[in-house]
């Protein structure tokens, strides 16, 4: 086995291995997503990827590591993520397993990330997966000292063909609040709302949205709830396949869904955030319904939600588990 760092000429071999890994049934290999998440990712360095090649020049497995490298961001991002490393992907082709290749690649990943305080499996910036997909790989990582949360996290889905907007809560029907899509020029107001410390949102939400605004993601795709004064009280991002592709955005559930259901028009929602002072009473659920209705109006027929533990919450609108994962980590 020969370990090699990444070169762009290896992309075809990587995608072929992905197709032969057993992962391809639920998570089809996709060159467009690979280019977005890896080759065109400004944080990616060739030594983040190590491939295991045999003497005949065949790729048998690879590992993709991540770390947070953006020094231009607010200090809270560096404080939160600067000492975390991620293993974004570790794949070995099915016919080459149980030969020590996966163990060797994992050891290489640990060496690459030797200066971090903890390693997380999935859930990285521009992630492919929010955690480890349910399956035999959980046992592999457990045997290597990784701990897994008991709670499942899920991607969710909803078929919109027969879906209808549910009745709105009293606070909406009474006119205290209203829904609207964001408008050009509102980018900073939306980002400021997400960044309010009192709301307790992940700083990653603001960071990610600011980046994709710069890539061309329109504020019209953000469903807002506002009070009568026009103050933003909540937000929900929506996504359509066309814009994800045109703006080179990373939204993996859309790519998985378009292969599973090629005849549908695909969209996605999330993240969702409500002002802490008005939570409860159905406001959040109503905002999800409004965003879902917006996508349906745009012609979307199949919607996914990427990475959530709030399965019961979203199920009230008909969303159901579609892909399942467990969060795994190792403290060093």
UniProtKB/TrEMBL annotation:
Keywords: Acyltransferase, Transferase. Gene3D superfamilies: 3.40.630.30. PROSITE patterns: GNAT. The keyword Acyltransferase applies. Its EC number is 2.3.1.-. InterPro entries: Acyl_CoA_acyltransferase, GNAT_dom. Residues 1-159, 180-332 form the N-acetyltransferase domain. Pfam families: Acetyltransf_1. The keyword Acyltransferase applies. It comes from the Bacteria. One of its GO terms (molecular function) is acyltransferase activity, transferring groups other than amino-acyl groups. This is GNAT family N-acetyltransferase. The lineage of its organism: Bacteria, Bacillati, Chloroflexota, Chloroflexia, Candidatus Chloroheliales.
